[in-house]
Amino acid sequence: MTNRKLYVARSPRIAARKLGEEMLVMSGQGSTLFTLNPTATILWQAADGATPLDEIVERRICSEFEVKPEEAMRDAEALAEDLAKHGILLISEQPIPKPVSSVQESR
Amino acid sequence: MPGLATQVERYSVVISIGGVSVRVNTTDADFLELLQDRYAGFMSAEERAEFDFNVDLSPLAFADPDADVSVTCRSGRWFMERGDFRAEWEPATGTGRIYQSANPYSIDSVLRIVHTLVMARRGGFLLHSASAIRNGKAFLFAGVSGAGKTTISRLAPADAILLTDEISYVRKLDEDYVAFGTPFAGELAKLGENASAPVAALYLLAQGPANRIDPVAAADAGRELLANMLFFAADQRLVHSVFQAACDFVHRVAVYRLTFLPDARVWEMIG
């Protein structure tokens, strides 16, 4: 675990929809469909670009799952990086401004 | 003194599928006849059409007969290409041009692509599925090749109106999804009826030892629906539209897994 602040934001290139209990997200570039697991879904929903990752982990993940904060943070960083590799999330050490237009999650 | 200009006869037909009309213009009377035969039942007597395509018939010098279909958009103009055709279409003006030899398969593919692009903008879609109307309601039967689309179509009772055994045409009209008949035939080699009805259910086909219907979780339904949709373009906005259409459809329409024996009793469970 590092001391740097990380910020995560939903990629504007992604469309997402919760169907039943599952969050489906689709990349517009490769037409690739992903299904997010419960932790990834929480991360996706909380990824507003303004809330630091450690705050998301503390408030949203540790309260939902029985997990130690350090372990949860390590897992969340790895998960965020994995989602970023697939173009689902954006990661930055600075707050990420909202794009002018983005595809919103629909319900 | 005879005029120097040669007058070229132009022939036109308007093909209306899913309520979307496309005028096809050609200078070849034999090709016109071929189109009239191929799309019988889907010809419109209307003079006006939403889209207008000129067909240039000539052997394609560039053609690679094995080339996959490619659909790209540049500066508001769509370019479609496969081993046997090349086409372009500008939605803003509603006009396009197709380069192909005199065969019915190339223009059929162009029409399928154009309709998928049109529907993607309008919340509808084309689906690898058979469909039929029974008791005023439409039922879709989706699956990959070999799943049973042709079989379920062949087993349809006399009171069912077969819309297609291969490619279903689904539009969102107001808050309802409506299935339309298509001339896009599969192994039955039989055009669908030019009819429409609100969609009552989507069945995901599986063949098994007994006839049964099982519910499908929404996310599974969405994934399978997307997997069976026709879509060709690598265009982010349209991909997102298609995704949202699939999610909206499974939110509004009942989706089931239909496991069936290849016998007509399966239709006792439908409609």
What percent strand of chain B? Answer: 35-45%
- State the secondary-structure class of chain A: alpha+beta
Globally, the shape of chain A reads globular
CATH class of chain A: Alpha Beta
Taking all Cα atoms into account, the compactness measure Rg of chain A is 13 Å
User: How much of the residues of chain A is beta strand, in percent?
Assistant: 25-35%
Q: In angstroms, what is the radius of gyration of chain B?
A: 20 Å
Tally of strands of chain A? 6
CATH architecture of chain A: Alpha-Beta Complex
The two chains with the largest interface, and their residue counts, are: A-B, 18 and 19 residues
Task: Summarize the amount of helix of chain B as a percent range.
Answer: 10-25%
For the record, the count of structural domains of chain A works out to 1
Distance between the termini of chain A: 34 Å
- Give the oligomeric state of the chains in this entry, treating copies of one chain as homo and distinct chains as hetero: heterodimer
CATH topology of the largest domain in chain B: Phosphoenolpyruvate Carboxykinase, domain 3
Per the CATH scheme, the topology name of chain A is: Outer Surface Protein A, domain 3
Describe the biggest sheet of chain B?
A: 8 strands, mixed
**Overall average pLDDT of chain B:** 92
Tally of discrete structural domains of chain B? 2
